[in-house]
Write a structure and sequence with these properties.
Blueprint: H1 2-15, H2 31-49, H3 53-57, H4 59-75, H5 81-98, E1 104-106, H6 108-113, H7 117-124, E2 131-133, E3 147-149, E4 157-159, H8 161-178
Parallel strand pairs: 1-2
Antiparallel strand pairs: 3-4
Length: 185
């Protein structure tokens, strides 16, 4: 959903006569912490897909580290409304992931409705280290990936309420940058 928030915001920003060139003025304090979190997550998934069992066995700790980096990075930008929304979404996702063994719970029904039945098999077989199918013992199911963005959307997906807050935060942040009001002195 972050990609959708970013893409939509760029289009809306342009329609509002915002400027892409303003993006050079974007200021995110401690941005490297946020980038590091995504890099660690990407590397963990990559290594797990290559068969490194140590990654799969430690996904809880890996998620704890990545979310800690995210929280610290977001905290340094929390004065902006956009980052407050991003923080809320991040916290909601963190909460449901940590309470469910380090994996985001995903609704089977939502996967099927979104046209992702093929991807569902990998979840059921436990081949995806970051996500797991919602089960009877899943905690806080309503915070999991239960919402759908189906076809004809080009990239059908399931997502959580936390993802929505993060996407809205990204959207607002990009709008703030692109559509700056000139200060008159």
């Amino acid at each position: 959903m972050i990609v959708e928030g970013l893409g939509t915001s760029l289009v809306v920003g342009k329609l509002r006569r915002g400027k892409f060139s303003n993006m050079k003025d974007a200021e995110i304090h401690k941005w490297y912490l946020i980038v590091s979190a995504f890099l660690i997550e990407f590397i963990a998934v990559f290594l797990s897909n290559k068969g490194y069992q140590v990654v799969s066995n430690n996904i809880f700790a890996i998620h704890f580290i990545t979310y800690s980096l995210l929280f610290i990075g977001i905290y340094f930008n929390i004065s902006k409304l956009s980052f407050k929304l991003i923080m809320l979404g991040t916290f909601l996702n963190f909460l449901v992931i940590m309470l469910n063994g380090g994996q985001m719970p995903v609704s089977q029904e939502a996967m099927i409705s979104a046209g992702l039945a093929g991807d569902l098999k990998a979840l059921i077989d436990g081949e995806v280290i970051t996500h797991a199918v919602i089960a009877k013992d899943t905690v806080l199911k309503f915070l999991g990936d239960i919402f759908i963005l189906p076809k004809p959307y080009p990239r059908p997906k399931v997502f959580s309420i936390g993802d929505v807050f993060m996407a809205v935060g990204v959207f607002i942040y990009i709008q703030e940058i692109m559509v700056k009001k000139s200060l008159k002195g």
